[in-house]
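Memo to structure team: turn this sequence into structure tokens by end of day. - J.P.
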Amino acid sequence: MWSKAYDASSLSALTALSIAYAFYFIDFSRPPFEDAAILMRYAGHFAEGHGIVWNVGEPPVDGATDFLFMIVVGLLVKAGLSLEAATRSIGFVSHIATVWIVYLTLRRLFYADLASSLVSAAYIAVGPGLYYVAAYFGTPFFALFGSITWYMALRTIQRGETSVAAFIFAFAALITALIRPEGVILTALMVVSMIYVCGVSRVKYTIWCYLVMFALVGGAYFLWRWSYFGFPLPNPYYKKGGGLLYSWSLKLSLWYTFKMCLPVLWAFILGFYTNSMQRLAVGFGLPLAGFACAFILIAHYTNFWGRFQYVLMPMALVCWYPLLKDIRGDFQFRKWTDMDVRKKSVVSCLVVFVSAAVILYGASLGKTATYHRDGLYDMAKLLSDYKGKGFTIATTEAGLLPLYSGWKALDAWGLNDQWIAHHGAITEEYLDRFKPHVIVFHEWFSPLVTPVNTSGKWFDMVMTLKHYAEKNGYILAAVYGETPYDTHYYYVRSDFPESEEIVKRMRGIDYYWFATGNKAINYASFQKKDKDF
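Reply from structure team:
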């Protein structure tokens, strides 16, 4: 049974653990991760009153797929916080709140013992969530509302349906879907889970509330966004989805899910110990497996550190304990008070060892998510000195450069450009509409080496940018990379007054490679003749 005193102390300890772990192990000195910076540009423009736009003065673009997160960030900026502080504060508060939900779900819904609840919550406290916060991603915000919605689903399964619980579930599900579009899939799978475990008749009011909420409120939002943006789905879907199936995305999604949920997967296997527990194991596993498999519908690009699957981590952590009910009943262990000192010592050591192993494994997941000083940020700050002059940058790296330069930006890949997303690729004719002052692209070659892979949409895009720059007399200012096989190209148009100055400054900057933090080399300075591939 749970105790208010024990739980209050435990929640305080878990909060202190999260703060201490963040203080001692997380590097908050870095600028936003490349893809997180994209959403921040939208949030900044929204806060300034320009609407949800990529470039001020242009039509709206739905490139910020974390829609509600972007809106909340913008509102906090409008209230006086800096863009960086607003983004991280939402993530940090959401992370701690998710830790609390994991603990309280186990303790108050399933009456789990103190040790099981604490270790489960501590596992997520030191997991990759804080690294997403450091990188400025909205991932913890989505995980928080996904966890709230899952708690309400589990409450209905465990205690039965009530009208209030049905409404809260439906409302939380709507918020989850507004944060990220795949929230629709996740919450629909939760409804399927309730139907499978309980039967339609026992959750019919919950189903009705869910359908009405999404049909009325969700439908109104859908029609508004279609009217506002001009297309029914987020712009990145047309670039990364397009109605195709991506088997490699499925494999990576399953791998990330397996890694994050590994410490509790054994409970789902033991859930097949009896027929009654088997039903729970299948029901609880449906949203986890179904959501992981749903990523076959979209390309894996930008899913750094498994952030799209992270919501499954707290969901798995709150439903493992009830799967052991029958097996605990068949294997009776002595009560703690009946054990002698020796047995108490052995059991205590075992609990400490397993708990430490689980928590350390959780911490190891986050440590793989570290990122480094990025030369794109330093270059963006350099270009920001020319903000307000009406300059345009065309780039494949549409995060840090557009955000911190303040320039009008053309996203050459198309995640933030509706014309490119719907026409499939950028063209030289489309580039010529913008006549960009600077062209930047990332590729796996340099003036010293030829590319290994000369096929694919990315290479075609890069060649379009490269050929356009060369045909129109752009200056190759720099080709930065740690090796000549992985580089950032910088071209500068030669016919505007600041051109020579910008080229000189680009060549003189200390440029650090994003993958390692090591100082990069400007391979343009070694070229005799740039190759035409």
